[in-house]
Amino acid sequence: MELLSDVLVDSIKDTAQLIPFLLVTYLAMETLEHSAESRMQDMVARAGAAGPVVGALLGAVPQCGFSAMAATLFSGRVITIGTLIAVILSTSDEMIPVLIAHQAPISQMLAIVGAKAAVGLVAGFIVDAIARILGRAGDGHVHIHELCEREHCHCDDDEDGLEDESADHDHDHDHGHHHHHGHGIMSIVRSALHHTVQVTAFIFVIGFVFGLIIEGVGEEALVDVLGAHPVRATFLSALVGLIPNCGASVAIADLYMEGVLATGPMLSGLLASGGVGLLVLFRTNANLKQNLGITAIVYAIAVLVGLAAASLGIIF
Fold first, then answer.
1. pLDDT the model gives residue 161
2. By the 8 A CB rule, do 38 and 9 touch?
3. Cβ-Cβ contacts under 8 Å for 251 (sequence gap 6 or more)
């Protein structure tokens, strides 16, 4: 009981210190998203062959739900598979707020975000090129109407409603993860508070569990185990990253800042951690085989990059 009490008190103290940083960060992020979301969507939809470039760059912008929007746009064949993968790989999800909360150097954050964006960009172009070679690049036409029919949302046939339909799907199928209905300062504050509470809870749980593990097996023993099996840690971290929940990126970023995860496993986990994008893809895209293939591609790229970073001795 004394062990539980000590770990609980330490976890509460550590988590409480992060709350102000998280709140300020989310207020800034929500303000950005409310003011720029429609423009981001329009840029991606109109990017064409340059989609992976735009997707990778916009995915790196700290915001919520962009991967979900990209998944919906892909399901309607508005963007290419390479653009979708570029967005998922570059999406920062909850990584940046956690790094800021841990007061990570700006240079370190920029390096991680830049690496994710670069990987997303290159991977997006390669995937699109392979899709064209295999003749699976699509027919070049959007299929929003088919998407609407599957979802029974009674969308208007008019193509001028494309942006509104895509945005509606993005919010409707985000499973309550991101609520941005309504406008104005109060809406921004409510969303920021919601995310702050949610991520704070994740950090507390992770910190508490991690604290118990450390006290149980010893910090040095835990670090030795993870350090002795960097390949295994890379595969497992990418697998955790695939979990469609902000807790994945929170856990990975948190363990990295605590010095438990090395750069390779951290990169593999954060590359695979594309928020709820894959979850929305499975919800909106009827082609299950294609969805599984996209998931496998994201996982494989994340693992390969993580292993490469480890073998090259890259450290952020």
1. 43
2. no
3. 202, 206, 240
pLDDT tens per residue, range 239-255: 888 877 666 788 888 88
Q: How far is CA 235 from CA 28, 152, 186, in A?
A: 33, 39, 42
Measured between its terminal Cα atoms, the distance across the chain in Å is: 39
Nearest-angstrom CA–CA distance, 38 and 185: 18
Average of per-residue pLDDT across 267-277 = 87
Spatial CB neighbours of 295, under 8 Å, sequence gap ≥ 6: 242, 278
**Inter-axis angle of helices 263-272 and 246-257, nearest 10:** 170
> What whole-number distance in Å separates Cα of residue 304 and Cα of residue 192?
35
207: confidence class by pLDDT, cuts 50, 70, 90: confident
Mark out the alpha helices in 46-65 (DSSP H runs). Answer: 51-59
Residue 169 pLDDT more than 60?
Answer: no
Model confidence pLDDT, tens digit, residues 80-103: 899 999 999 998 767 888 898 899
Report CA 98 to chain centroid distance, whole Å. 13
Among residues 92, 93, 59, which one has the least CA distance to residue 73? Answer: 59
Could you identify the residue written with the tokens 């790196």? 60
Domain limits, the chain: 2-312
Helix then strand then coil, % of the chain, to nearest 5: 75, 0, 25
Compute the distance between CA of residue 129 and CA of residue 55 in angstroms, rounded to an integer. 16
pTM: 0.69
Buried b (16+ CB within 10 A) or exposed e, 190-229: ebbebbbebbbebbbebbbebbeebeeeeeeeebeebeee
